[in-house]
Input
Amino acid sequence: MSEDDEDARLVAYIDGELDKDERAAVEERLTTDADLRARLMRLREGERPFVAAFEALLERAPVERLQASLAEHVARQERRRTSMRDSWTLRTGVLAAAAAIILFCAGIAIGRYGPGWLAGGPEGGDEDWRQSVVEYAAFYTPETFGSEPASKPKDLALVGAKLGLPLTPERIALANLEFKDAQILNFRGAPLGELDYLDPATGPVLFCIIRDSEPNAAMKTETRGEFAVASWARDGRGYIVIGKLPVKQIAELANSLEQRF
Output
C-alpha cells in the first residue's frame, strides 16, 4: 500500500468510514506501529492529504451517473432547439448541469475537509492537545513498548533538548511504574514530548509535555472516557499525566512530577 493510500485509509478511520473489520485491522497496527500512530496524530490535527483524499473522493462520486444525466439533458435540449433563444437555453442548461457536478463533488469535499479540517479536527479549536493525547493513548497496550534499557537515557536527552528541559531517569521516575520509552511528537508546530510508563495492573501510563507558550494553570484532575487525567501548565509548557489508574492515584503521580517541573 502506498503512503497516499495509507493516509487516505487513516483519514477514513478518523472519519468513521471504515467497516468493523477494517477498523479493527487499523487499531491492531496502531498498538505496535509508532510511526503509524504519529501519522494518525498529524492527520487528526490537520495535516490531511487533501489532494489525495479529494481524488479518492472523486473516484467514489457517482460521476458516471451525473455525466449520463448531463448527456441526456444536452440531447433533450438539442431536440428542442428551434431558435436562438433555445440555443441560449441549451448553453445555460449545459453550464448549469456541469456546475452541478462540480458543486456536488466539491460540496462533499468541503463537508469532509472544510472548516473543521482547516481547524485541525471535527470540532475545530475545541479539541486541544490534551484530548489528542487521550485519543492517542487508547491505542497503547503493554506490548507497545520495546525500547532497550541502554537507549532510555539517550532518548530522554533528545526529548529534553526539544522541550528545553533537562530530563534524566531520576527526574522522571515514578513510584511503582516502570519507565519504558521516550519520544518526541509534534502538535500544530509545537514539540510534544511523551514519556511512557507501565503499571503492572492497568497498563500504560503517559506523562506528556508540550512546549506551546500556554499560560500558567493550576493542576486539575478529571476523567476522559476510561482514562484518569491530571494536567497543569507552567513556564510556557503544558503537562499531562494519563492512565487507567484511579483518579486519586493519577493525581498523586502528577503531584510528584509537578514538584520537579
In short: Confidence is low (pLDDT under 50) at residues 50-54, 94-126.
